[in-house]
Design a protein that fits this description.
7 strands, single chain
């Protein structure tokens, strides 16, 4: 199990004004990223399960919303690949009993598992961030930091899972740059080169 990537910068409200339109929709929208990756690339999304194990609660970079889930917790980490290219990494936190109920097919995207019986779900984006980890650089074949978001799925008003997704800069091939030149300068002045966006 890998430690969550280090969060260099996070701001849900400010990111909406800095991001260009396609990235704003990508990071702040409530659509399924696995479905969108398939639409963008024309290739089905393949899930490469990296780890699935009990969560110890010791990770410093876990989203605070994970505290809303009932212990004991399970954490699942996966790579999302389309047409042989790794385009995202994701981790999710679950109550262990809920995970057993909803993640029977571990190589399927979560969205497909959760909607297979047409049950209603509500997604709420809780945070947009720039994150960094050496192992992300290697697998995503880019130099971070990388754009990420985390959100919760709710069912019947109760949080079901917390999910963090980290996206490859390769998505710029379809979405363009995340921040235009003018906002990039604003961003660097506010947060410095350590958090330069991809």
């Amino acid at each position: 199990m890998r430690a969550s990537p280090e969060v260099l910068w996070r701001d849900l409200s400010l990111s909406g004004s800095l991001l260009r339109g396609p990235w704003r929709l990508w990071l702040l929208g409530d659509g399924s990223p696995t479905r969108h990756l398939q639409l963008l690339t024309g290739h089905p999304v393949t899930i490469d399960l990296a780890a699935m194990a009990p969560d110890t609660g010791s990770d410093l970079h876990t989203p605070r919303e994970v505290q809303e889930l009932q212990a004991p917790l399970l954490r699942r980490q996966v790579w999302l690949t389309c047409g042989g290219e790794t385009l995202a990494w994701a981790e999710s936190w679950w109550n262990q009993q809920q995970a057993e109920e909803h993640l029977k097919e571990k190589d399927q995207p979560i969205w497909r598992s959760l909607t297979s019986n047409r049950a209603e779900l509500f997604r709420e984006v809780d945070g947009v961030a720039l994150v960094q980890a050496d192992w992300l650089n290697e697998r995503l074949q880019g130099e971070g930091p990388f754009w990420s978001r985390h959100y919760r799925f709710f069912r019947k008003g109760q949080p079901l899972t917390v999910i963090r997704e980290v996206f490859s800069p390769k998505l710029e091939r379809w979405l363009g740059r995340a921040i235009d030149a003018e906002n990039n300068e604003v961003f660097l002045n506010m947060f410095g080169n350590a958090a330069k966006p991809c």
